[in-house]
Amino acid sequence: MTTRKLVPLIFERSTPGRRGYRLPDLDVPEVPVTDLIPEEFLRDEAPALPEVSELEVVRHYTQLSRLNHGVDVGFYPLGSCTMKYNPRVHEDVTSLPGLASIHPYQPEETVQGALELMYNLGQYLAVISGLDVTTLQPAAGAHGELTGLMVIKAYHSQRGEGHRKEMIIPDSAHGTNPASCAMVGYKVVEVPSNDRGGVDVEALRGLVGPNTAGLMLTNPNTLGLFDENICEIAKIVHDAGGLLYYDGANANAIMGIARPGDMGFDVVHFNLHKTFSTPHGGGGPGAGPIVVREELAQFLPGPIVEKKGDQYVFVTPENSIGRVRSFYGNFLVYAKAYAYIRSHGPRGLRQVSETAVLHANYMMNKLKDVYHLPYDRTCMHEFVLSGVWQKEQGARTLDIAKRLLDYGYHAPTVYFPMVVDEAIMIEPTETEPKSTLDEFIDVMRRIAEEAKEDPKLLLEAPHNTPIKRLDESRAARHPVLRWEKA
Amino acid sequence: MRYLPLTQEEQQEMLQSLGIDRVEDLFTAIPKEMRLDADLDLPAPLSEAELVRHFSELAEKNNDLKSSVSFLGAGSYDHLVPSMIKHIAGRGEFLTAYTPYQPEITQGVLQSIFEYQTLICELTGMEASNASMYDGASALAEAALMACAATRRELVVLPSSLHPEWQDVVKLYLKSQDVSIAYLPYHEKTGVVDAKAFDGIPWSEAACVVVQQPNFFGLLENVASFKKVAKDNGALLVMAVDPISLSLLKSPGELGADIVVGDGQSLGNAMGFGGPSLGFLATSGTKLIRRMPGRVVGETVDTDGTRGYVLTLQTREQHIRREKATSNICSNQALNALIAAIYLSVMGKEGFKDVGYQCLQKANYMKERLIQVDGLSSPFSAPTFREFVIKGAVDWEEVNMRLAEHGFVGGLPLARFGLPELVLFSVTEARTKEEIDSFVNLLRGLIS
Amino acid sequence: MSEQLRFTKEHEWLLVKGNIIRVGISDYAQNELGDIVFVDLPSVGDQVEEGEGIAALESVKAVSDVYSPVSGEIVAVNEALEDSPELVNESPLDAGWIVEIEVEGVAQTGDLMNKQEYEAFVKGV
Fold it and tell me: The whole model's pTM is what?
């Protein structure tokens, strides 16, 4: 093991006695601490935080940032994650003290601007989804799923049908779908995909019954394909007494073009950090508001904002399930989604989806002769290739992904959805210029050549990154989850 | 359209390469009757300048706490935030990255999370922390579920001195999995749970007992008694802590906590009307670490032997274990965790201690001054840290509106939680003696 | 030693010592799973039914359950796997054993494959 360190840990830069920030001098009369807090409550030694100057901290995190890829750095075709441009003006407007420095418990009269924003955003999301009432409380997509399922459960319970505990999920679904089901005590019933990549309608017919709570569906689905049978699917589930849940992970394909509510869905969550361009921040914060049909609104978590005369007020729905987090959700995140919608307007949003879909089809069409395309039909905003041809030549999808890093790109989503062997899921998004798409197409084609001619080049990739392939087995076998002083 | 670089010519080229005439031809998979034939009913687009003006107008309708003096807390705190944080955390390489799925080009985020995990362990005295949760309340709910899974028991014991909103969140998460809750009342004189409250709880069924330190009223609970009852009955001790208080208070690790959670807003994050913040969750021991929800970063080496960081213990998570995962959480609050890490680093060992010390001194000063006001008293006797409750037969909502006219944001009237006459004040290091004195004088005038 | 082992179609092996049965996974199985990074073991004293999951073998990005080939009581678990899960990869038929189950009466393994039969079976997979 060599000792070359990319960037030392902040703890390794520490020098005893050094300080990075100074508070104003204490201006109230001091009382001995032990007069206020009994000694047995106090710690003997302060937490061993780093002792570094402000410049050292600035430099440390600046150096770290330079080891990181982001949309600002380069193309990020990570399927299902919608890595589009995050407008910087959104950072500015949500930093205004009138939004960033307000307290969740201030009197409502003193935060009318915030409530107005929440109210209008809820309305906009209702319009975009074709449904009625919104809660902004869920902090992420999976949190929205959980909230939506809790609402569905409350609906069935109120109707005396609490025994409906089976949720049907396609085999191509995101892992959060079954995991969210488990968190509300639902049993997952998997429905297979048909040969066009959609839900197998006949199989679905055989799966619904008196215990069906509903169906969770992403449409377009994780293969990037729109399920043409959605009307029939909705009818089958509704006729069986179940509700339809729309996983909005792929809503970037349909804004202003079709609405989940019109497709028959009863509950929708949006990933505002995907479709509505709030930055992902290296894994969060996101926001996962849900929109429901009128008759489900009574169950939403509270409070939600209503307009009474010219005042905005918080109200808790009549049969609210309760709360899924404190306060009102990730306010400064969804305020950026509000800005995004206001910047685009109705036609702009439609153009976003049209362009995203055009870009994906353009790219798919230019790659399908060199990579296997398991479902060869018009895709929506993303498409799934398979690396099976390259696997035969000795390089797997993982190796293709790693080789892409050498060319300065983030890799697509790989090995998902699981219904495709050696899956490579590509989502170009609408904000990339055509030149970037063309360059990426060229590189993908070049890598297909490399796989044929010199697969070792892929197997040992990446070659040009700050660090090479990491030993994940070692990390998991003997977990080192924190730094310890040597 | 802004942000869409595609030119007419390029669009034509793309359509041609696909052998179609119009973009609409790409949407034929969507049944015709479902395709919208009218524009969405949304406002017309705004230019950047118009958007900025619109947001300024919205913001002006709010009384912000930069231009007022606030004594509100109860889960969201007005602490001093070093200026450099927004510049560093706002760098595009952090801001516009996704979850670090390709470690070779995301060491920046991975290492910063590893540092965050270490910092949380230092504060809490625990062995391992995850990479963050949505907020403190949902982290507590997840901790309670984790305790149920670890002990195979289905009862969670909650103190009624826990933040009411956190109680609501825990209740909903637990009810969804048919886990029962037993409540420990707080003593009406001390404001904290005393050991007598433990009587009558079916402890042999308890997965865990929860204690919030300081509790919702800002009071210090006797954690040792919670630990004893947990230990005697094979239940876990779950602590919900205020991270700033850990600059002075004994660490949960020293107190024998099994799982520790809290909300990290106060670590350099904006109040932002309550979000985004972050929840932290830390634990000790291999068995519990393997049951943690959420992402975790671990250290390893690359093929050259160079130290690096990866997401690890992933088989706990939803993308692999699906319905058997320890939680459904996927996106977390990585950027807020980064902010917390930068905050703790720049504050450093001494600076962080100062923050806690000044909160304690200033809060105590204000508490002493308020109880000298005629008609006001301190209803609870337990020691306090940064927050405290004052009692007075006053219409606090009305008083707060009057205070607002003078640029002050008063305490939180607890009538909204069924506790009339009580109001909860928070005093951070950001307040000055002059602000406190002016506030007390103004309040005295308003209620006399 | 491996001559005494009996194999199941689920790629597990059994070693019968009176009414105690030691269980592990085959070399073929460990190879398919890749690097084992964690073994989730049951507790000694657990009652198990034939076909029930008794342990989980985790690689970096997958989890595979080990199913009990018999009904009985767990009387021993291989504690060495807690710190060294790699033993399953390095020595699947010996040091990488997983659990021991005590059955009532004499264990029936007649319908299981011996080493040669199993090797032929794997070739056909």
Answer: 0.96
